[in-house]
Amino acid sequence: MHESNHPSAQIEQIRDIMTRSTTFVSLSGLSGIAAGILAFVAVWQTYRILGTVWLGDNVFALLRESSAPVHSLMFVFLLTLIAALIAAFFFTWRRVRGLGQELWNMASKRFAIHLALPLLAGGIFALALLQRGAFELICPTMLVFFGVALLNAGKYSFSETIVLGVIELVLGLIAAVWVESGLVLWGIGFGAITAGYGIVMFLKYER
């Protein structure tokens, strides 16, 4: 009997089809690597603007007194976000095409929606903090909501995504208590940890 006609093989094929229909398995690890590199660039640009990565009271006083560095930082982080989204779309689209699958299917829709909603809420909350001059909490907010977004969307993707979400959430909570280290922890979370996650995903699922 041909292997594909064997009951166990048929069950495995059905299970694989069900998994692919409910789980977004085409997320590229290269997206995480690119996002991590972009985060490092953002930290470097922030250092050039502020002259430090340690967010002491003098830094927050400077940001409250002058709008110029605030606008520069907003431009850096907005550009980083746009570049990271473009990279994520490109590398994921390339992987989907290589696998002969559709990019916009039920699994990817669920993943995107559950990821986007917490990120959108976090972005609005961060803007509210910015408007009120609560600069100390912006980096922690970005990490916390990113972690929540990954936890929320992780059930529709690889289990490693949930692990990444937990790490980002914990880093955000630490940054909320230890505000001076906010930018450093932001760089670790969005830079080193995200790039490491991308490397693991690439070696485990794409190599």
Rounded to the nearest angstrom, the radius of gyration is 20 Å
Write down the secondary-structure element order: HHHHHHHH
How helical, in percent, are the residues? over 70%
Low-confidence stretches: none
Percent of residues in beta strands: under 5%
The number of E-state strands comes to 0
The number of helices is 8
Give an overview in words:
- The protein is an all-alpha fold.
- The chain has one domain (about 30-205).
- Helix 2 packs antiparallel against helix 8 (about 180-205), helix 5 packs antiparallel against helix 6 (about 140-155) and helix 6 runs parallel beside helix 8 (about 180-205).
- The two termini are about 35 Å apart.
- It has helices at about 5-20, 30-50, 55-65, 65-100, 105-130, 140-155, 160-175, 180-205.
Describe what is shown at a glance.
The protein is built from 8 helices and no strands. With 207 residues, the protein is mostly helical. It is elongated.
Keywords:
207 residues; elongated; 0% strand; 8 helices; mainly alpha; single chain
Tell me the layout of helices and strands.
Blueprint: H1 7-22, H2 29-50, H3 57-65, H4 67-99, H5 106-131, H6 138-154, H7 159-177, H8 182-206
Helix pairs in contact: 2-4, 2-8, 3-4, 5-6, 6-7, 6-8, 7-8
